[in-house]
Write a structure and sequence with these properties.
The protein is an alpha+beta fold. It contains 5 helices and 17 strands.
Amino acid sequence: MKVVLEKYHGLGNDYFVFDPNKNELELTRENVKLVCNKNFGMGSDGILEGPILKDDGLYVRIWNPDGSNAGQSGNGVRIFAKYLKDAGYVQKKHITMHTISGKKIEVSYLNEDGSRLKVSMGKLSFWSDEIPVTGEKREVINEDMVFGRTLYPTTCVTIGNPHCVIPMREISKPLVCKIGNYSERARYFPDRINTQLLKVIDKENIQIEIFERGAGYTMASGTGACAAAGVAYKLGMTNNKVIVHMPGGELQVEIGEDFEVFMTGDVFYVGKITLSNEFTEKLRAV
């Protein structure tokens, strides 16, 4: 049987959807890396494996391009929800799904074709043992951390995956790549970390640049947008509702009670890819 992948993107953050109910291939760290490689495979920011059907609902496994598991992805869950609608798994306007890491996610379809969605992403936590960050248990707020011999005021947070957010007056792709190369594997973060540089435009608009663990520089990130919006609100820099501007586009983020986060944005269907027999056999062999 041929392997078929469906490609989507959310603000330039692109994923393949691999449906295990339609493909006879077991995904592994090595063959995920090969698929996501832009030179020897198809090129992608990751793979969404699902729906994995269990008694308590629909699950998705989120693969990073380096073959590691992401735990959570804002753009990824919106893309996966769009696929569920496109493939006929769901017909309702409101659904619940789960990530393999244990996150329960509520999704609302805001238009007929399911391309605009509002997602309840769960609660942000700034506690060091939940992110995790080394050292005594505390909320990691405005701590001085050294990345590449430079000191940065850093706030850390988790929303199912770990983030460090650094407020700055000016941000750029080269700067986030420079810092991210050090911060991703810094001694503070035993599970590695996603990094966002945050620029506050005004009380209702922020701008971020993103470096993701396992992926590198990224044009947009749903969880990164939620993390940055939560940090900006926590630090008193913005209101609880903001538009997050990223190189790939914009997301609306609302911080509710107890730092529950709601994210609204668009996703787009690119097309279907049928892998060659030769490439499929290579995936089975690695």
